[in-house]
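Section 5.1 Outputs to date
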Amino acid sequence: MADRNITYLTNVNLITCVLQSNSAESVLEIAKHAGVQGATITYAQGTGIRERMGLTGMAIDKHKEVVRMIVSEEQTEHVFESLYLAGELDKPGNGIMFVTALEKIATYIPKNVLKKLSKA
């Protein structure tokens, strides 16, 4: 146990996107291009005040895909804007996205990466 350490990361945020079904893959592709290392997709069922939205009576699917990714504070704005556009969240009923500040996280980080970070 003595040779094992926990490396904590700070100054990170969690970006959560709640999207219509079959939207997660395109959002993940854009996230990769924006520098995100990984993401988690879960499936959910949503509900709201109305089953139909807008003047057109457009049906909103109750099945959702929830994409969560952890990014550095420096990446947050760029990734957030990229995902907003990729998910077409500027169109009614396509979803919602939000950022949550994380106090600290811990995961495996290769020693060569830690050395680079300590030099910076």
